Amino acid sequence: MKIKSQKDFWSGLMFVGTGLAFAAGATNYSFGSSARPGPGYFPFGLGVLLAVLGAVILFKALTIETEGGDRIGHIGWRPLCLIVASVVAFGLLLPRLGMIVSLPLLVVAASFAGDEFKLKESLINAVVLTVGSWLVFIKGLNLVIPLWPTFLGN
Amino acid sequence: MELLNNLALGFGVAFTLQNVFYAFFGALLGTLIGVLPGLGPVATIAMLLPSIYALDATPALIMLAGIYYGAQYGGSTTAILINVPGESSSVVTAIDGYQMARRGRAGAALAAAGLGSFFAGCVGTIIIAAFAPPLTELAFKFGPAEYFSLMVLGLIGAVVLASGSLIKAISMIILGLLLGQINTDVISGVPRFSFDIPELTDGIGFVAIAMGVFGFGEIIANLSRPAEHREVFTKDVKDIWPTKQDFKNAYPAVLRGTALGSILGVLPGGGALLASFAAYTLEKKTRGKPGDVPFGQGNIRGVAGPEAANNAGAQTSFIPMLTLGIPPNAVMALMVGAMTIKGIQPGPQVMTSNPELFWGLIASMWVGNLMLIILNLPLIGLWIKLLTVPYRFLFPAIMAFCCIGLYTLNNNNFDVFMAAGFGIVGYLFFKLGCEPAPLLLGFILGPMMEENLRRALLLSRGDWTAFVTKPLSAGLLLAALLMIVIVSLPSIKSRREEAFHDEP
User: Fold this and answer.
1) Could you tell me the residue range of the domain that residue B410 belongs to?
2) pLDDT value at position B232?
3) Quick check: A141 contacting B, CB < 8 Å?
4) pLDDT at residue number B388
5) In a designed cystine with B79, which of B90, B210, B263, B411 is the match (CB 3.0 to 4.6 A)?
6) pLDDT at B227
7) Other beta carbons less than 10 A from residue B92's beta carbon
8) Which residues fall within 8 angstroms of residue B487, CB to CB, at 6 or more apart?
C-alpha cells in the first residue's frame, strides 16, 4: 500500500489517536444515560466521532491520488527546538532569576533560531525589549512580575 | 426612534476622552500589525489579553475591536505598495493595487482603499445598530436545544466557507471541542482529563492555546522558511488624490462591495476574508466601461470593491458575537474570551445588562474608522518605513511580549509551559496542512455546547429527537446539513477551491 497524501495520512493518524485517547479517558467518568448525561457522555461521543473522521481522512490519504504526494517537507528542527526551549527556560527562570535575567536570555536564545543571527544585534534588541517591557508592564500596567533574582533578597 | 436613542447612548460612551484614546490606540496598533506581515490580529489580540485586566470592560473591548478593523486597513497598505498582503483579507487587493502602484498610481489606489473602507465602515456600523436588537429578541426565545443547534450551524458555517479540506476542518473543530472538555464538569463537579494537575481542573487557558498555536507555532513556521526578499516601493506616493474619473469608476464597486461584505460578514465563518474574495470575483464578473484597464493590470475597481467588502465584513461579523454570543471567526472567539475575562457572559443579555458596553462598542467602531482615515492617509510614508524592520528583530519581540503576558495571566509559569507545548502542536498543524482557526472556535464553544446539549437532553428526558422535532432547532440543523451537502457537490467543490486560489 502506498501513501497518496502524506499530510492527510499523518493528520488522519493524529485525529484517530487523539479521538481514541479522549474516548478511552472518558470511560473513567460516569457516562450516565441519555436522560441524565454524566460527565463522560459528551467527551466520549466526541472522541469516537473524531476517531471516525480521522479514519475517513486516513482512508482518503491512501486511495485518492494527489499532486506530488502532498509531502510534508523538511522539518525546521532548529527553530522548533530553540523557540520551544527558550520559552520553557523563560518559564522556569522568571520566578527565580526575575525578568532582568530571563527576558534578555529569551530574546537572545530565540534570535539564535533564525538564520540571520547576529550577536550584537540581538543583544541590543534584548536590552531594548527588557527596558520596554519594564516600562510597559511593570511601570505602566502595574503587573506583578518578579524583576530581580530572588537571591538578591527583595 | 429607538435606534437613534441607542446610537446617542453609544456615541456618548464612545466620545469620552478615555474611550476615544483606546479606540485610537487600538486602530493605530491594528494598522501597525496589519502592515507587518507575519503578525496577525489573532496573535496580537491574544498577546494583549493579559493587559486588559487593568482596564474596564468597555475600553478593553473598544481597543480590541480597533485592532481588528485597523488590521484590515494596514494590510491593504502593504498589499498595494509592496505586493505583500499584511493580512489574508488583503490578498486580492494586492492583485490590482500593486499594479496601480507600479504605474505610479499608488496614491489613487491607497485613497480608493481608504475611502472605500471608510464608507463601508459607516454602513456596517448602521447595520449592526439596526439589526442587533431584533436578533437579540429572537435569541431570547432560544432554549437549550435551539442553542445547541445554532452552535452546530455556527461551527459548520465557519468551516464550509473557509479554505482548505472540509473534513480536516471539521476534525479540527471536534479536536477543539475535546480540548474544551479538559475542565471540571459544571453539572457534576468532576474534574476531567486533569491528570491530577491542579491547574488543569480550571481548563486550559485559551490565551495559552492562542499564543502557542498562532504566536509560537507561526514563528517556528516562518523561521523554517528561507528569509524572503522584499521589493520595497518607497518612491512617489505623493499624489494621494484620485482623479474624477477614478471616483466615477470606483464608487459603484464600493457600493457593491459594501453590500456583499455586509451580508457575508453576518454569516458564520464569514468576516473579512471571504468578503474580499467574493467582492473581487463580483467585480471581475461585472462589465466595465469600454477602455477600462483590464483586471490584474491595475483596475481601480479591483481595489475599491474588495477593500470596501472586507471592512464591511469585519464590522458586521460582530453581529453574531454581540447578539448570540457565538463567535463567527477566530478574532471574535478571542473577543468572547475577553468578555469572559471581564466577567461578562456573552450572549443576548449583554445588550440589556451592559447597554453602555454594547452601544459604546458599536459607536466606537465608527469613531475608529474615522480616525483610521484621518490618521492613515498622511502617515502612509511612516508605515512604509516600518516595513524595513526585519523579521529577526520582530519575532523575538513577539515572543517576549507573549511570554510576559502568559506569566501574568495567573502569575504562574504553568501557562508559559502550556503555550510552549501548543507551539509544537501549532507547528505540527502547519506541517500537516490543518487550519488552526476552527480549533479555537471549537475550544471556545465546547463547554457551552456541552451544557446546552445535556440540558436539552434532561428536558426531553433523553429523547434525541427533540433536536429535530422543535421547528427552530430542526431548521438550524437542516441549514448546517445543507451547507455541508452543497459544498461537497463536485461542481461547487472545484469552484470553491478555485476561488481560494485566485492569487497572483
Assistant:
1) 2-500
2) 47
3) yes
4) 66
5) B90
6) 59
7) 31
8) B160, B166, B493, B496
**From the first residue on, what is the mean pLDDT of each consecutive set of 10 residues in chain B (504 residues)?**
80 86 87 72 78 81 86 79 70 81 80 87 87 80 84 79 77 91 80 80 80 85 68 51 77 89 74 76 75 77 88 85 80 84 82 85 86 77 68 82 82 88 92 85 83 86 84 87 80 58 40
For the record, the C-alpha cell of B349 comes out as 443579555
Residue A11 neighbours by CB under 8 Å, 6+ apart: A54, A57, B168, B171, B432, B433, B434
Hey, what's the cell of B143? Answer: 432554549
A73, A107, A114: residue with CB nearest B400: A107
Look at B433 and A114 and tell me if their CB atoms are within 8 Å: no
Contact A143 B400 (CB under 8 A): no
Cα distance from B178 to chain A (closest Cα, Å)? Answer: 6
Q: How do the domains of chain A map onto residue ranges?
A: 6-70, 77-152
CA distance B117 to B119: 5
Q: In terms of CA atoms, which chain B residue is nearest residue A121?
A: B393
Residue B284's pLDDT is 78
Based on the number of CB atoms within 10 Å of its own CB, is B297 exposed (0-12), middle (13-18) or buried (19 or more)?
middle
pLDDT in tens, A69-124: 777 778 888 889 999 999 999 999 988 888 888 999 999 988 888 877 888 888 98
Question: CA dihedral in degrees (B200, B206, B207, B211; nearest 10)?
Answer: 100
Distance CA B200, CA B373 (A): 45
Q: Rounded to whole angstroms, how far apart are CA atoms B49 and B35?
A: 21
The SS3 of residue B191 is strand
Of B407, B49, B48, B403, the closest CA to residue A145 belongs to B407
Lookup: cell for B438? 476552527
Chain A interface, best mutation among B401, B407, B484, B493, by max A CB count within 10 A? B407
pLDDT of residue B426: 92
**ipTM score of complex:** 0.90
β-pair type (A36-37, A32-33): antiparallel
DSSP B354-376: -HHHHHHHHHHHHHHHHHHHHHH
The count of structural domains within chain B is 1
Contact at CB, A42 and B419, closer than 8 angstroms? no
